[in-house]
């Protein structure tokens, strides 16, 4: 049975209240509480986009135009992006990546979701993926300080990995000479 427009609006309103509450917790650095509120927001908002018109929208993000992204999809994308930010702060890169990818499924034009994906990749150690995506983001905003900070994080992780590799290789050659 289809929901009435009033039911849909009530669910959306309740979902957005949870999102706003999550934002309040996030700003106060209560990330676990923020995640709980964002999850509740998703419970209210999922399915609101499942109308007859959404089946006409291309499912391949590369075929989609930005104006074809529905408001419910944008809402879901923002919430998933916020969840990814929480997971980045809680040092859960795998979950951050998952949430960012879900956000991009809902709205492939969400630049903040792409940035959260970069952050997840950096923390996971997938530096090549992170750098490639960051290159794409920097085309539109080359002077963004957050992008520059992640670029420094990538360089630091690469230097750390190189140092570790040199140490391991040095030990290997030391053993061979004995």
Automatic annotation (TrEMBL):
<dbReference type="InterPro" id="IPR019734">
    <property type="entry name" value="TPR_rpt"/>
</dbReference>
<dbReference type="InterPro" id="IPR050754">
    <property type="entry name" value="FKBP4/5/8-like"/>
</dbReference>
<feature type="region of interest" description="Disordered">
    <location>
        <begin position="1"/>
        <end position="24"/>
    </location>
</feature>
<feature type="compositionally biased region" description="Basic and acidic residues">
    <location>
        <begin position="8"/>
        <end position="24"/>
    </location>
</feature>
<dbReference type="InterPro" id="IPR011990">
    <property type="entry name" value="TPR-like_helical_dom_sf"/>
</dbReference>
<feature type="region of interest" description="Disordered">
    <location>
        <begin position="158"/>
        <end position="178"/>
    </location>
</feature>
<dbReference type="Pfam" id="PF13432">
    <property type="entry name" value="TPR_16"/>
</dbReference>
<protein>
    <recommendedName>
        <fullName>TPR-like protein</fullName>
    </recommendedName>
</protein>
């Amino acid at each position: 049975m289809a929901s009435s427009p009033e039911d849909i609006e009530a669910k959306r309103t309740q979902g957005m209240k949870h999102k706003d509450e999550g934002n309040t917790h996030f700003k106060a650095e209560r990330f676990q509480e923020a995640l709980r509120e964002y999850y509740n927001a998703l419970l209210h908002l999922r399915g609101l986009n499942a109308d007859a018109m959404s089946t006409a929208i291309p499912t391949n993000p590369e075929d989609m135009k930005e104006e074809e992204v529905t408001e419910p999809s944008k809402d879901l994308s923002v919430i998933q992006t916020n969840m990814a930010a929480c997971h980045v702060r809680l040092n859960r890169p795998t979950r951050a990546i998952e949430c960012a990818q879900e956000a991009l499924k809902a709205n492939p034009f969400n630049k903040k979701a792409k940035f959260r994906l970069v952050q997840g990749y950096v923390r996971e150690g997938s530096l090549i993926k992170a750098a490639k995506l960051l290159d794409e983001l920097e085309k539109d905003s080359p002077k963004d300080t957050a992008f520059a900070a992640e670029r420094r994080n990538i360089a630091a992780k690469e230097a750390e990995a190189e140092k570790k590799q040199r140490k391991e290789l040095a030990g290997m050659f030391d053993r061979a000479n004995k």
